[in-house]
């Protein structure tokens, strides 16, 4: 399977399970196309043309020939300089590595990933928050994250991988969408009464079982075992943690429990203030679940049978 085919498959599958729905994505891409068509020829030269068909800025091929054949992939939740050097050392020792896949964005995928946060407005709207309110809440968070990225040196991984001639791609929101889709469906099927039932459900999956063994088990942050769930919102996609202002609106919309990867102290206090139960499933374990669901699809729907080299917190669990 070629690199461009792996990337294209991930984008297609990410769209398929996007919690916003296909109509919203089509509208977003249409808006981008209209903006692009209105640009002068000079400005079009620097436009990110891939964004016209790929709604996920944080899921990109960073470097490498798109037509190379991919048989062995080195996969990590975080890929930084040390992992690229590790890949080079493994290659020099006789191991084949055709591609490094990072979950968390790096390079261009990182410097532009604040654009992904906008999808949180539509996700909040799906939960019952009026879209005009959701957009204003999310717009402040976008500006905050964009400012935090400005002083960052985002090209280090790209430069290193390019100099060492090792292809690298990222798969962030495309994987996170799968976590949300999978867990929301499983929780809906379970129809739990108490929070402990959701924790027990999470602990059935190998990613969370492995996390428990290394001290990162899912746990109840707000509430207790016998707190009743109410309406459950799985909140694990949209680039990064959302605005703390959203909790008040989610309370009004009738959300009883949020299942999240992680939550800041400020966010936890706001959730408690607005009487919302919170279950923290775990960050790296949830990232693993999303990546594994993507790889399962890739291997089940295509002729690809990849060899995996696990690193940086990634563990391959097949279903």
Tell me what the structure shows:
- By secondary structure, the protein is of the alpha/beta class.
- The chain has 2 domains: 3-172 and 286-311, no CATH class; 178-283, Udp-n-acetylmuramoylalanyl-d-glutamate--2,6- Diaminopimelate Ligase, Chain: A, domain 1.
- The protein is built from 14 helices and 9 strands.
- The strands form 2 sheets. The chain has a 5-stranded mixed beta sheet with strand order 1-4-3-2-9, with helices on both faces.
- Helix 6 runs antiparallel to helix 7.
Defining traits:
319 residues; alpha/beta; Udp-n-acetylmuramoylalanyl-d-glutamate--2,6- Diaminopimelate Ligase, Chain: A, domain 1; 2 domains; 5-stranded mixed β-sheet; 4-stranded mixed β-sheet; 14 helices; 9 strands; 12% strand
Spell out the helices and strands N to C: HHHEEHEHHHHEHHHEEHEHEHE
Uncertain residue segments: none
Distance between the termini: 21 Å
Shape from CA axes?
A: globular
The radius of gyration over CA amounts to 20 Å
Percent in strands: 5-15%
Please give the share of residues in helix: 40-55%
Number of helices: 14
Class by helix and strand content? Answer: alpha/beta
- Let me know the largest β-sheet: 5 strands, mixed
- Give the integer mean of the pLDDT values: 96
Largest beta sheet: strand ordering: 1-4-3-2-9
Domain count: 2
**Topology, number of strands:** 9
């Amino acid at each position: 399977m070629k690199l461009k085919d792996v990337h294209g498959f991930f984008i297609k599958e990410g769209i398929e399970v996007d919690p916003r729905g296909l109509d919203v994505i089509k509208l977003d891409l249409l808006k981008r196309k209209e903006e692009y068509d209105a640009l002068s020829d000079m400005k079009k030269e620097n436009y990110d043309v891939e964004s016209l068909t790929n709604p996920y800025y944080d899921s990109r091929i960073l470097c490498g020939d798109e037509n190379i054949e991919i048989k062995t992939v080195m996969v990590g939740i975080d890929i930084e300089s040390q992992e690229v050097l590790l890949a080079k050392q493994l290659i020099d020792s006789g191991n084949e590595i055709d591609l490094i896949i990072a979950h968390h964005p790096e390079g261009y995928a990182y410097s532009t990933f604040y654009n992904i946060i906008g999808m949180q407005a539509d996700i909040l709207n799906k939960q019952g928050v009026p879209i005009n309110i959701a957009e204003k809440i999310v717009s402040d968070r976008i500006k905050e994250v964009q400012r935090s990225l400005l002083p960052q040196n985002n090209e280090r991984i790209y430069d290193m991988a390019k100099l060492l001639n090792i292809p690298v791609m990222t798969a962030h929101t495309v994987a996170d969408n799968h976590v949300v889709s999978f867990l929301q469906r499983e929780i809906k099927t379970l129809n739990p009464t108490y929070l402990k039932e959701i924790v027990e459900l999470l602990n059935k999956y190998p990613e969370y079982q492995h996390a428990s063994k290394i001290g990162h088990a899912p746990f109840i942050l707000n509430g207790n075992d016998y707190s009743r769930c109410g309406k459950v919102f799985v909140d694990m996609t949209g680039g990064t943690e959302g605005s703390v202002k959203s909790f008040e609106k989610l309370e009004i919309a009738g959300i009883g429990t949020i299942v999240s990867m992680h939550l800041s102290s400020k966010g936890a206090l706001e959730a408690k203030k607005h009487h919302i139960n919170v279950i923290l499933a775990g960050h790296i374990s949830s990232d693993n679940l999303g990546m594994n669901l993507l790889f399962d699809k890739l291997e089940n729907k295509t002729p690809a049978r990849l060899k995996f080299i696990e690193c940086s917190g990634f563990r391959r669990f097949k279903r």
